[in-house]
Amino acid sequence: MAVIDAHNHPDWHGHDLERFLANMDANGIDRCWLLSWECPAHEYSPHYQQVLPAALLGSTTGPVPFTRCLSYVERCPERFVLGYCPDPRRPDACAALRAAHDIYGARVCGELKCRMLYDNPDALLLFRCAGDLGMPVTFHLEYNRRQSHGDPWTEWWGGGIDNIERVLQACPNTNFLGHAPGFWLHISNDDLYQRVNYPPADAPVVPGGRLELLMRKYSNLHCDISAGSGFLALNRDHDYTRRFLAEFQDRVLFARDYFDSRHADLIRTLALPAAVSAKILGGNAERLLADTH
């Protein structure tokens, strides 16, 4: 069984290619989806320069240039799957995505992380283009928590869960992977999403959350369990998580967005049936990419 990390970035947190590969080997990861991040510099916090020095690389497109993803894939094609998501507000966004797919072999459209509503017509056009190419779309969703115009570095990305439902309705032929606090807080039917980005460790999961409902309603929605948001959501209530993963075992993907082992450790701690764990840890990622044209 191949283990696939379905969400990570080149040069992330000081990991050059050599260190990245060593980490994959240490964690038993066979392949990794390597995702770009394209947006204007004024939309993301300078904090990212400490963990991803895009400015030092001369990037004019955003924190994770496509060229860095391509560099890793060209040097080690057997270990990485190439991802790319242009800023949908670019007039040439669809042309850029097609070129990345046709010329360089990009197979994933991600990571989308822009300060725009994801049901914007420009974004929908890009999503439909990705669907035509068979490329799943990984999006970062985070609510707007700015209190005033004097709070410039409180980031928001995509809008809210209602925007995502409209996207799913408008793009039925595109597969989407939800990620980040604005997505995972909706695992529970409560109002925490209105107040925090990350739930308290002891916050119970109230069944009937929007995530559960959307997963049942839209077969093109998948879950990327990476980062603190995915881990904390699944770690809140292990009994609920076992039921959630059993029901949606074909549409949950192991991913890290970092270099630790906590997501894989959690999956193994849950003692899921072997067939379910195999799907989550790699099978579902392989199946999604099998549809890439």
Description of the molecule:
This protein is an alpha/beta fold and 293 residues long. The protein has one domain (4-289): Metal-dependent hydrolases (TIM Barrel, Alpha-Beta Barrel). It contains 12 helices and 8 strands. It has helices spanning 17-26, 48-51, 66-75, 93-104, 121-133, 161-170, 181-184, 210-217, 227-235, 238-247, 262-269, 274-289, and strands at residues 4-8, 31-34, 80-82, 109-112, 137-140, 176-179, 221-224, 252-253. A 5-stranded parallel beta sheet has the order 4-5-6-7-8. Strands 1-2-3 form a 3-stranded parallel beta sheet. Helix 4 runs parallel beside helix 5 (121-133). The radius of gyration is 18 Å and the shape is globular. It starts with a strand and ends with a helix.
Give me some keywords for this one.
8 strands; globular; 293 residues; 3-stranded parallel beta sheet; alpha/beta; TIM Barrel
| CATH architecture group name | Alpha-Beta Barrel
Strand element count: 8
CATH class: Alpha Beta
> What profile does the largest beta sheet have?
5 strands, parallel
Mean pLDDT: 95
Sequence of secondary-structure elements: EHEHHEHEHEHEHHEHHEHH
Major sheet strand order: 4-5-6-7-8
The helical percent reads: 25-40%
Please indicate the percent range of residues in DSSP E strands (runs of 2 or more). Answer: 5-15%
The CATH superfamily is known as Metal-dependent hydrolases
- Radius of gyration, taken over Cα atoms and rounded to an integer in Å: 18 Å
Low-pLDDT ranges: none
Pfam families: Amidohydro_2
Protein name: TIM-barrel fold metal-dependent hydrolase
Organism: Oligosphaera ethanolica
Keywords: Hydrolase
